[in-house]
User: What shape does this take?
Amino acid sequence: ALLVSNTGEASALSYLVNKASPENLVYRLFTNNITPAETDTAATYTEASGGGYAAITLTGANWTVTPGAPSVAAYAQQTFTFTGALTTNTTIYGYYVTRATTGDLVLAETFSSFTPANNGNNLKLTPQITAD
Assistant: This one.
């Protein structure tokens, strides 16, 4: 299940009351086998490295926000493409999202583990945040 961290909740409230400037979100893959918690920070997660991995920045203007019950913010499917195996921790357990400038953790989610091994292996995510 998607978990919004305490810092992510504070960021959302700050945007709502026009206290903080918005930032693009950066989707990152993590390789430590943990369960996300509200008190996590970006440092809680071990970001994937090697094998052609690169984090993906999502531009704010490209999100589609649909009000309703529930309201949904959605983004086009994103693909992480690998050139081979990761260099240290070789298995990916999920993703976490940070703000592009401050690096603050916004949310995290686990999924069935994935171990890239070959050039051309890829992992696809379709970012979507639901609020009700």
In short: The chain is about 10% helix and 35% strand. The mean pLDDT is 94. The two ends are 15 Å apart (CA to CA). The longest helix spans residues 6-16.
